[in-house]
Fold:
Amino acid sequence: MKFFIDTANLDQIREAQDLGVLDGVTTNPSLMAKEAISGDKNVMQHYKDICAIVDDNVSAEVISIDFEGMIKEGEALAALDDKIVVKIPMTKDGVKALKYFSDKGIRTNCTLIFSAGQALLAAKAGANYVSPFLGRLDDIGADSFGLIEDIRLIFDNYGYETEILAASIRNTVHIVECAKIGADVMTGPLSSILGLLKHPLTDSGLAQFLADHKKAAGQ
Ligand code: E4P
Structure:
């Protein structure tokens, strides 16, 4: 399973990269705003800064909602660095843009996926990644893991190479369940990745080992 971090915060991206398990980054306009990044020049520079930290897969989202605007923005984003994956919303113009970029060999991530039908359409249009939003589905009481299972089944039925990028991850249970179901990628906050480290028996076991070592050394 690939691990992406879902943030535009450079310190958190560096921390995840230093851990040695990071495969990429996803951002969105809200995450960029959270870091107070605004204005075309600053936004572009911020994406370059992120690309300088990680090895590959930096999802950069277009703001335009019309086809021409998406193409113009997406091409400018893709020209920044080979690591950029253009993030396109699941709309009619978005699907056309996915096909356009696929034909040009520019990688895409189709975002705001909430149904298996949307994922199928994005895969047909040649998206490299589809991003079903788990946490937001949980928030409205929908079956988020069922959606991942349905998309997995459909992609496997037809051999689609589009990767399932489980997004809106909120906790370690989301990550582990998605890994069991067969999501190709998960993107979550740093806390969800670091949460995988934790188990109380690991802490108490380590404390016991160190105490026994100290006791033996004192004998
Ligand atoms: C996906 O790429 C999005 O950036 C993200 O996962 C949204 O998550 P949220 O529901 O926590 O905002």
Q: What stands out?
A: The first strand starts at residue 2 and ends at 6. The pocket of erythose-4-phosphate is lined by residues 6, 26, 28, 111, 131, 133, 135-136, 167-168, 187 (CB under 6 Å).
